[in-house]
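debug: dumping io for the single-chain case to check the tokenizer round-trip. Nothing else runs in this session.
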Amino acid sequence: MTPAARVQAAIELLDQIIEAAENKGAPADRLISAYFKTRRYAGSKDRRAVRELVYRAVRLIGSRPSSGRSAMLTLALTDETLLPLFDGSPHGPRPRGEGEWIEVRAVAVNWLMVELAHSGLEGEAANALLDRAPLDIRVNALKADRETIDLPEAGEPLAAPQALRFPTGTQVEQWPAHRDGLIEVQDHGSQLVAQAVPASAGDTIIDLCAGAGGKTLALAARFGNAVSLVAADTDKRRLGNLAPRAAKAGAQIDYTILLDPTRELEALEAFKGKADHVLVDAPCSGTGTWRRNPESRWRLDQKELARLGALQDHVLDTAAHLVRSRGTITFVTCSVLDTEGTDRMQAFLDRHPNFTLETPDLPLGSARGTGWRLDPFHHSTDGFFVAIARAS
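debug: decoded output
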């Protein structure tokens, strides 16, 4: 592909990403993968270059652009090498027309910037939400140890007991250690919040929003399969991925339970009042993961944020029925917004005065209202909020 053709490909992909953001379609990485599956003529350098152009444009523009072309023209105004490529050459974009629309460069739309500021993230701290993320792995303690594992590259040890960090783009998923279940790709922050669950060997832990099971597997490894794990979720497809992942990792999951939304307690009747700990890794806006999914901020609006807050309240109330006396709820969101963090836990405590707060035992992070927060600028992790409530 010529340089101009790469720019045109990025424009076409951005058009798809914009449409998907508007209609809650596939994420950007899946769209990029599908795009190149039908364009075998594009070599690996072409794919990397186009992908880089796409994500540079996405990170630059705070609100959903009017078109892929306007997004790429906005990027071209910051990079003097790009504008000459709008030359009308074969497979390239047409020249820029007089007065053609340019998008606003920003971290996010105005209302969301207000939410970030209210949550204590402005200036450099807000900008860092869109930095490129490193690649973190968790060495699976059920099969290996960080101190002795033999990997093709040496990673940087991090604060979590089995965490290693590598440069962005490191192809760890092609390593034998990944194939054999010795390592898992998992952000350092995600590893840390799994460490926050105040459990001991022999305890019963319900992962109430398990998804594909990243934190479930981390808990199994942390305790050497010496806890009873219940993985539950409303998403059949994601939950279905847990069994093969657990088999590869050597992780023991005692129960995998598919939940009916709004009727979760019916499926969990056998565990009511019996769990030592419930992990609530609640659905959220994902503002803490913009480094990896920057187009997700184009999908978020105030109505969706309110819906997510109500869902977080519902899941926390469900968890309250499951813990025994002196049991705990560990509430986690991959969001940096107070409305999905400290505000939700405070609202829970107001509804359930028989619960009291405990401070998470974590080597990184800082206090934020009712809990603890990690963010890219201060802690070089994805953004997370974690709070622990113990039943009387």
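debug: round-trip ok. Residues 135-185 form a domain with the Alpha-Beta Plaits fold (CATH 3.30.70).
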